[in-house]
Amino acid sequence: MEDTVVFEEPITAQKCSENLSSVEDAIYVIGGKWKLKIIIVLQENGNIRFNELQRSIQGISARVLSNELKDLELNGFVKRVVHADQIPVVVEYISTDYSRTLKPVIIALSQWGKTHKRKIKENF
Amino acid sequence: MEDTVVFEEPITAQKCSENLSSVEDAIYVIGGKWKLKIIIVLQENGNIRFNELQRSIQGISARVLSNELKDLELNGFVKRVVHADQIPVVVEYISTDYSRTLKPVIIALSQWGKTHKRKIKENF
DNA sequence: CGGTATCCATGTTGATACTG
DNA sequence: CAGTATCAACATGGATACCG
């Protein structure tokens, strides 16, 4: 009548409202069209400059990127580093340790996205 | 020239653009403020009616819920079941097997959200 | 280069009312 | 109950120009 082995966190009814609120919190900070993408590119590159970053992310405008970066910085996912010793001043963005805690989320999303794409292709 | 053991998908530079595009695909279908929440509630309940669902999801309006459900149905995450034999007609929404493939994503987001909330509290 | 300011088009949402 | 229609309010986003 009962599973003897629990191999992964099951989605139980009790857990679920908790789940819901945690997922809500997560979506609140890393949701939206761009945030995770920026975080991924930043993790890929170690350090990257504004225009380079903009070029890396298809379709984002300077204004939106600028706003997103401010947001991400406030929440501790990104660090803005200014090299004032160079002229013209060089600004670099780097990902933080905290942004690396998102790795499991990124992996899960990436894997799901990959199989989803496969599924979509099969249906045509 | 080939890895003999792959123990977890590492975030490497080569993998990353692939990552990026997969995550993009995922966000495209399950992104936004409501979709994942609806999916979670549906998975929790097995079957649930429209107004019940609306009450379960804090702050969503009937119009938005209706649109989201249509979208989710189109993408195979939700099934709309009409019990025409009852008067007035009862409509129930149930989650599909395909929506269950999102379990790892939900778990990852939920766990991250939980520790994030903890972190935020500590900083005050 | 690394942004910001402004304007404007478009999209999204909320409130309310209404229907079968 | 299970939505839909309508309209107004607001948010978001692109385009362009501009600045230090």
TrEMBL record, chains A, B:
Q: What residues form the membrane-spanning segments?
A: none
Q: Which GO terms describe its molecular function?
A: DNA binding
Entry keywords, A to Z: DNA-binding, Transcription, Transcription regulation
What is the top-level taxon of the source organism?
Answer: Bacteria
Query: Domain HTH hxlR-type: where?
Result: 16-121
What InterPro entries does this protein's entry cite?
A: HTH_HxlR, WH-like_DNA-bd_sf, WH_DNA-bd_sf
The name under which this protein is listed is DNA-binding HxlR family transcriptional regulator
Q: Which organism is it from?
A: Pedobacter zeae
